[in-house]
């Protein structure tokens, strides 16, 4: 059975130059989606930070890459090149590169080598994932502002806590209930997140 991607590729090639540009755009979007999915799988709720500092992602054949890591890539495998504008993010990506490669392999992208480079010059202005990261951060901050427990549930638990005989335990439970009804804050009054 023929794959849908192969049929789409043939169709785009039949369009000539416009098809070549469309195929290139499709591949860029595909790489971005795969990188986002792998990053979210590895980093969980911290993924927006990593994506925000990712300036470019390339998955390429070693013969097309101008990178020393390309020499280690066997035939049929690809090289992943990631440009980041933050040294801490580059360091963390380096530490978790095997996990990222594993998730990319699960998506059908057989990455053999991983090259992490600092973003320079006009590359620093590129942020292909920034809008997604800002949306995720805004959604997280909206959900973080909610109390941990609603008022009705806390009231029911307070009534049950009154039946606890040990005074110290009862006071601890009541203090915990009071704290759970408040949005989390730090000592200076700002959000703890």
Number of helices: 8
Order of helical and strand elements: HHHEEHHEHHH
Molecular shape:
elongated
> Pairing-aware structural class of the strands and helices?
mainly alpha
For the report, how would you describe the main beta sheet?
3 strands, mixed
Cα end-to-end separation:
50 Å
**Number of β-strand runs:** 3
* Beta strand %: 5-15%
Main-sheet strand order equals 1-2-3
Helix content: 40-55%
Structurally, how many domains make up the residues? 2
- Structural Rg: 24 Å
Q: Low-confidence stretches at least 5 residues in length (pLDDT < 50)? A: 189-193
Compute the average pLDDT.
Answer: 81
Condensed summary:
With 193 residues, this protein is mainly alpha-helical.
Report on the architecture of this protein.
Residues 189-193 have low confidence and may be disordered. The protein contains 8 helices and 3 strands. Helix 2 packs across helix 5 (97-106) and helix 7 (151-161) packs antiparallel against helix 8 (167-180). The longest helix is centred in the N-terminal third of the chain and has 27 residues, at 17-43. It has a 3-stranded mixed beta sheet. By secondary structure, the protein is mostly helical. GO terms for molecular function: transferase activity. This is Phosphoadenosine phosphosulfate sulfotransferase. Keywords: Transferase.
